[in-house]
Amino acid sequence: MNEYGPILVIILQLIFLEGILSIDNAAVIGALVAPLPDDKHIEWPRSLQKFGEWLHPILGNQRMAALRVGLLGAYVGRGLMLFLTSFIIHNSWIKLVGAVYLIHLAFDNLEDTSSGGSEDDEQIRPIKVQTFWATVLTVETMDLIFSIDNVVAAVSLSNKLWVVMIGVAIGILTMRFAAGVFSYAVQREPILQQAAYVLVLNIGIELTLQQVWHVEILDMLRFAISVGTILLALAYAHSPLLQRFRFVLTWLAHGIGIVNELVDWIFAPIRGLFNAIVGAFKSPSEPETVS
Q: What is the C-alpha to C-alpha distance for residues 150 and 14, in angstroms, rounded to an integer?
């Protein structure tokens, strides 16, 4: 008992740490899978339809399948991150790349480029709906980025790899359960979908502050910011008083749209060059794709 007592404490600490650091991940994944139908099968390519029929009893319909595939990807991704921890610690630019991706994803879903938003609209515009496989790819990418900090923090608690893996594995399972609950909560409180992308923006900004200006943000403070964001979103959805300040959200959404248009304009030559190179290798019979 004396030998395994400290190990048990470390595992419990890892589970708690995973829960604290993964509230954003759970909320975002829940919001991502929420638009997927929970009464439709996965749309497999024709060549994989028989394989999909065989997997259907295991994966279930689209919404549940996205969570289950994401769970598998989370274990693979965290395992990979554990073995690359030393590389990640000594190459902080990886976190900065992840931060840029998170900010781009948040801006892409929170922007409002409409010319005339109505102040009478009670709901913020709906989040862009993705196909099943696009959603799964986004879930896996998000999990890899979120797992960077989680794994680095976990390794700092113990130098025994198997202890870290047990704690992280249980934490992932708990986080995926929370994501499932959150996906159904989004059905009752649509505002949580926008709140999830605000959480993504929060994490992107926090990572940028850490990597560029070396601002250390405590885990409990990150947790408090995340919980506060969700509670504030729910309060806004049910408070006519707070909704009087909707013009501020509309102003911010328009600003995000302008920033996105500026970024698109800056990278348009690169995107055009890429399309030209790809087009050079296409056969003349293939139609041109307009991006």
A: 9
148 Cβ neighbours under 8 A, 6+ residues apart: 81, 88, 94, 95, 98
Are the C-beta atoms of 146 and 288 separated by less than 8 Å?
no
Q: What angle do CA 26, 217, 14 make, to 5 degrees?
A: 50
Which residue, among 31, 19, 202, has the nearest Cα to 103 in the 3D structure? 202
Q: CA 80 to CA 18: how far, in whole Å? A: 17
Task: Specify the pLDDT at position 27.
Answer: 87
Q: Distance between CA 139 and CA 110 in Å, rounded?
A: 18
The distance from CA 279 to its chain's CA centroid, rounded to whole angstroms, is: 32
Distance CA 291, CA 275 (A): 9
Q: What are 256-276's pLDDT values in tens digits?
A: 989 988 988 998 888 888 788
- The letter for the amino acid at 18 is E
Q: How far apart are CA 162 and CA 14, in angstroms?
A: 12
Lowest mean pLDDT among 74-78, 103-107, 250-254: 74-78
pLDDT at residue 21 in the model: 67
Q: Which of 15, 24, 31 is nearest to 226 (CA)?
A: 24
Q: Give the up-direction half-sphere exposure of residue 203: CA atoms within 13 A in the CB hemisphere.
A: 33
- Let me know: does 139 contact 26? Beta carbons within 8 Å: no
At position 248, the amino acid (one-letter code) is V
Spell out the alpha helix ranges (H) of the chain: 4-21, 23-33, 49-59, 62-83, 85-89, 93-110, 132-155, 161-188, 191-212, 219-238, 240-243, 246-280
Confidence of residue 123 (pLDDT cuts 50, 70, 90): very low
